[in-house]
Amino acid sequence: MFNDIFIFIAIVETGSMIGAAKKLGMSQATVSRRLQSLEDDLGFKLIMRSTRNFELTDIGKILYDGVKDQQEHLNSFIANLSARSKDTAGRLRISLPTVFSYDVISPYIPEFLQNHPEVTLEICYQNRNIDVFKERLDLAIVNYRPSQQTLKMRHLFTTNLHLYCTSKYVAKYGMPKTLDELKKHLHVGILDNELESTDKIELLNMKTGKIIVEGTYSRIFHNNSLHSRPMIMSNEIIGGGWDILFKEELAQGKIEKVLPNYSFGELSFYLIRLHEHNTELIRAFIDFLDECFARIGKE
Fold this sequence. Notes:
Helix 1 (2-14) crosses helix 2 (17-24), helix 1 (2-14) crosses helix 3 and helix 1 (2-14) crosses helix 4 (58-85). It is built from eleven helices and 15 strands. It is an alpha+beta fold and 299 residues long. It is elongated and about 100 Å long.
């Protein structure tokens, strides 16, 4: 009967059997038959029909006025129920790069949780090669191209690595203008993903496009550029990183870029997950990550 009542409402609101049929995706004959069935069930006429138009009976008008709001309420209730069934909920285990996430992703995670109150996040911050399956990760961001064929991978972002020092360092020790001059300064070298250091580094002249291989001549190596900040701010050393990591200090003039025409390497980030991991929650978090990376350069 409820379906027939909704058909009756459609007839009244469209003004005709034909209009109701088009709105509901039915044949005119079906609409007419269902209206007749409703009137038979109720035991009274709802509409006085003619070949060209119709007129509500008094009791038909009372019924329409009484049920039209109920249909809107039911439609709204069903829509909310449908949205709730598709809502993101559950526990998500992810791996994020320790340093890059510090400014690009981590500041916005509380906002994500506020927007998804039924979500729990387990975040592993790490800079090493990972095994998504063994570590039970739903998704991860890594700074290397994984070799596993079972992983779904998407490139997110690439940034150039540079060297930085403070203005006070320049006043005290001078600013190196060439690679040979840089060798005379105390500067930080980087450990790779295997935690190995190297006495050689490949540089890119960003003006000429020429690649140069040089000795690092470093006396300190580490694998976490976040710790370059306090070292650099000591005014006693040149450290490495990328512009996003030092955006505030660069904007304030506290830090200067050393040999700005050279890139001391590229750092690319990839989103990886198992092919079968494609839940509503995972898609919501991927959308969140895309928003985080879209903010780069806009702030």
